[in-house]
Amino acid sequence: MDRDKVRELRMEINKSLEEIGAEYGMTIKIQGSMSFTESSCRGKFECFETKSDGTVYDPAREDFINRAKQYGLSPKDLGKTFTHNGELFKITGLKSSRPKFPISAENVVTQKRYKFPASLVKRQLEGGI
Fold first, then answer.
1. Is 59-125 in CATH node 3.40.1010?
2. Cys staple from 101: which of 13, 55, 77, 115, with CB 3.0 to 4.6 Å?
């Protein structure tokens, strides 16, 4: 296996998981990155139920909405994009259990998840320096 093959496989798996999730009223996605060796690959997936209003329950999203102000951010920043090291990221949530890197974000191109310090995200949303 190589990186390109695993990337293609991940995209196909996510398509299939999306179909399965729709059948069960859930969102199912591969979580984080997939590791691979010459002959195998592995990854984790996560499932979130769909609320009665059609939105997907995600604890990190809910945490961001409820706690963003404690980190100098606004609940309205959820879903906004910022640039870091030339790459574009979308804010997806917050985990207060990670005090140094509480902000969760997803690379817009690769869909890989990252964690960031709140100060860096705030600075980038304000126009970067």
1. no
2. 115
> Which distant-in-sequence residues (6+ apart) come within 8 Å of 60 by Cβ?
92, 93, 94, 95, 104
Phi and psi, residue 76, nearest 5°:
-70, -10
Where does the chain hold its CATH 2.30.30 domain(s)?
59-125
pLDDT at 129 over 70: no
Q: Which residues contact 21 (CB under 8 A, 6 or more apart)?
A: 27, 28, 47
Report the alpha-carbon distance of residue 21 to residue 27 in Å, rounded: 5
Predicted TM-score (pTM) of this structure: 0.64
Q: What is the mean pLDDT of residues 87-100?
A: 95
Alpha-carbon span 64 to 73, nearest angstrom: 9
